[in-house]
Amino acid sequence: MASEIPRSSPLARLLKWGVMRWWRINGWTVGGAPLPDTRKFIIAGAPHTSNYDFLVFLGVVETLGLTPRYIGKHSLFRWPMRDFMMAMGGVPVDRRRQKKGMVQQVAARIAEAEEFALVIAVEGTRSPTTEWRTGYYRIAEAAGIPIVCAGPDYERREGLIGPTIWPTGDLEKDMAPAIAFFKSLRPRYPEMVLFPDGNGLDPQLQAERQRARMSAGTGGNAPTEVAP
C-alpha cells in the first residue's frame, strides 16, 4: 500500500491558524538542537502534563515547516472525519491485523514515504506513570531511523528540540540522554511527571529555577496562556 499523503481540510487549516495565533500572542518560540539531516525520524515528546502541550507541539512543527504524522486507530479515519484526520497527519493502523503488528505496519508506511516525521507522546498519558511506551523505539529500530527528543518548557515558553538518538537495540542505554533532557524541562504541571526510573524532574535544576523565579518576583506557578 502506498503511503497516503495528508489531504486538505478547512477545519485543519482553521485549527492551525488558531494555534499559531495563540503561539504568537503567548510569546512561544522554538529552541534547542537542530533537527537531524534526514527526512525520516520519530519525534518522541515528553513531559506531557496538559492539553496545552498539543498547542505547543503544533506551534513547533508549524514553525519548523514539518508535516507531522501520528498513529490513529483505523476506525477514526472514516467519513466525515477522514479528510480532517489525514490533513492533521494521521496514519491509520488496523490493530486487527494480527499477522502484521503495529510496529511492522508503521515501519512499512515509513519505508514507502519520501519523508516522515512521526510524533509519539512517549508517556502515553497526562497522569504520572513510570510505564512509558516503547513502541516508538521499536518503530525507529525497525525502520532504521533516528529518534528526535522534544518537549515543552513553560518557564522559557520554548518548544525545545533535544538529542537525536539512533537505536542500537539497547533501549535503556540509548534513551539515557533523552531522559536527562526531559528531566531538564519545565512542564506546565511539574508535580505530574514521573520517569521510568521512578523519579521526577531533575530536583537540583528545578530548585535553581524556583530560586531564580522567586528572586525575580515571578513566583512558582505555571504561566497563564491566552486561549486560542
Question: Would you mind describing this structure in some detail?
Answer:
With 228 residues, this protein is α/β, with parallel strands linked by helices. It is built from 8 helices and 7 strands. It has helices at residues 10-25, 52-64, 82-87, 102-112, 135-143, 171-174, 176-184, 203-216, and strands at 29-32, 40-45, 68-73, 90-93, 116-121, 147-153, 158-165. Helix 3 links the parallel strand 3 (68-73) and strand 4. The model has no long low-confidence stretch (mean pLDDT 84).
What strand order characterises the main sheet?
1-7-6-2-5-3-4
Report the count of strand segments.
7
Average predicted confidence as pLDDT: 84
Level of helix content?
A: 25-40%
Question: How much of the polypeptide forms β-strand, as a percent range?
Answer: 15-25%
Largest sheet: 7 strands, mixed
Q: What is the terminal separation in angstroms?
A: 37 Å
Q: Spans of 5+ residues with little confidence (pLDDT < 50)?
A: none
By helix and strand content, what is the structural category? alpha/beta
Provide a compact summary of the structure.
The chain has 228 residues and is α/β, with parallel strands linked by helices. Helices cover 36% and strands 18% of the residues.
Characteristics:
globular, 7-stranded mixed sheet, single chain, alpha/beta
Question: How is the topology of this model organized?
Answer:
Blueprint: H1 10-25, E1 29-32, E2 40-45, H2 52-64, E3 68-73, H3 82-87, E4 90-93, H4 102-112, E5 116-121, H5 135-143, E6 147-153, E7 158-165, H6 171-174, H7 176-184, H8 203-216
Parallel strand pairs: 1-7, 2-5, 2-6, 3-4, 3-5
Antiparallel strand pairs: 6-7
Helix pairs in contact: 1-2, 4-5
